[in-house]
Amino acid sequence: MKQIAGAMILAVVAAISPPNANAQQYAPLTKPLKIEQVPGHPIYYSIGNPGIPGKVNEGNTSNAGFVVTPEGVVVFDALGTPSLGWALLQEIRKITDKPVRYNVLSHYHADHIYGLQAFRDHTAAMIIAQDRAR
Question: Tens digit of pLDDT for each residue in 73-102?
Answer without folding.
Answer: 999 999 999 999 999 999 999 999 999 999
